[in-house]
Design brief:
The protein is of the alpha+beta class. The protein has helices at residues 19-36, 49-57, 92-104, 127-130, 140-149, 153-163, 166-175, 187-195, 205-210, 229-233, 241-252, 259-269, 279-282, 326-345, and strands spanning 4-6, 63-70, 76-79, 85-86, 113-115, 137-139, 238-239, 289-296, 299-307, 313-321. It has two domains: 4-86 and 239-345, DD-peptidase/beta-lactamase superfamily (Beta-lactamase, 3-Layer(aba) Sandwich); 90-230, Beta-lactamase, CATH 3.40.710. The protein has a six-stranded antiparallel beta sheet, with helices on both faces.
């Protein structure tokens, strides 16, 4: 069952028409509302927006959750926003923020060098593709860049090691008052658990993963893993869309990190190269979208901060699981993203 809420808006109805007709309708509705009410006492979103998002999110298999909030007005839309979803690589946002908090506290700097333990090297874009030889050492700034822009798994586990492991990230989230999000495993362990393989439990995460997903991609066929319902239901490394939205809002407002770290984080997120078929796919060209994706079998996530033409910033957390077809998952997120873009511009 899908739950949908729309804050500070009139009663919802359930439209059943195409995206293009929807955009024309909400533009017309907004114009009529402005004429009928010359003085707006509160920010409100177009009627039916939450139902439209819920309609797109509805799925016979799996689940899609959405939470969008205007950072400047507080107007929001929520669909399954308090249900838990596996984060996949969207967890890398909290990991990077925890590292940057350490920078703010003087524990290390963005220039601090971190050496790669070869036992942590896993297949991923970035380090493994471009630096195949032993002796790799990268700064914290470069590890964050690789983790967030190309979703480098090796770089992420290096950051996790630097901050004290997954439990340290969860403690940071709890200390900052982010309820509903937790971090429990390395990225290598996530991949082991979602794969359905059972490697030797005596092996560390990296070597265990390499037994069936070799670091060198040319040494294996490109295995496609099925949807893993047990993994999807596991509360570890999960978030609610609302918790992810709250994290984005508080980061963007500068409540969790110092100004320099906040700026650095969102500059990196703006350079994200993944997820071109998700939210970014249907946005007008040039729309600022600072985001992080997450992808595993049956899972497509896209979370970030969108800047509207009027300058308003909208935090968006779109999460999904249990939908086998990647194109079907991604297209839903793209359509929800565009619907939010259109609807939030029509606040009055």
């Amino acid at each position: 069952m899908t739950s949908a809420t729309l804050s500070a808006s009139p009663a919802n109805f359930r439209p059943k028409f195409s995206h293009a007709i929807w955009v024309n309708f909400v533009n017309f509705a907004a114009a009529i509302a402005i004429l009928a009410a010359p003085v707006a006492t509160a920010q409100t979103l177009p009627p039916g927006l939450a139902d439209r998002v819920a309609q797109i999110a509805k799925s016979d298999a799996g689940k899609v959750g959405a939470y969008a909030i205007d950072i400047d007005t507080g107007a929001s839309v929520a669909v399954n926003a308090d249900d838990r979803f596996p984060m996949a690589s969207a967890v890398k946002l909290a990991i990077a923020a925890t590292y940057l908090d350490g920078v703010d506290k003087g524990r290390w700097s963005l220039a601090t060098m971190h050496s790669l333990d070869e036992g942590m090297r896993v297949r991923s874009d970035g380090i493994t593709d471009t630096l195949p030889h032993a002796g790799v050492a990268l700064s914290g700034a470069n590890l964050i860049e690789l983790s967030l822009t190309v979703s480098d798994n090796t770089a992420t586990d290096m950051l996790l090691k630097a901050v004290g492991g997954p439990a340290a990230v969860t403690r940071w989230l709890q200390a900052k008052g982010i309820a509903g999000q937790r971090v429990d495993r390395t990225i290598a362990r996530l991949l082991i658990d979602v794969s359905g393989h059972t490697p030797d439990p005596k092996l560390a995460d990296g070597p265990a993963l390499a037994t069936f997903m070799p670091v060198e991609p040319w040494k294996t066929d490109d295995e496609r893993w099925p949807v893993n319902a047990a993994f999807d239901a596991d509360p570890r490394d999960s978030t609610t869309p609302r918790a992810m939205g709250d994290l984005l809002v508080r980061l963007r407002k500068g409540e969790l990190l110092q100004p320099a770290s906040t700026t650095f984080l969102f500059d990196v997120l703006a350079r994200c190269k993944t997820g071109t078929k998700r939210v970014k796919a249907l946005l007008p060209a040039g729309t600022p979208w600072a985001h992080k994706t997450g992808t595993l079998p049956g899972i497509s996530n896209d979370v970030g901060v969108l800047t509207l033409p009027n300058g308003h910033r909208v935090a968006i957390a779109l999460l999904s699981y249990g939908i086998a077809d990647p194109a079907a998952r991604d297209s839903r997120l793209a359509e929800i993203g565009r619907t939010v873009f259109d609807g939030f511009q029509l606040q009055k």
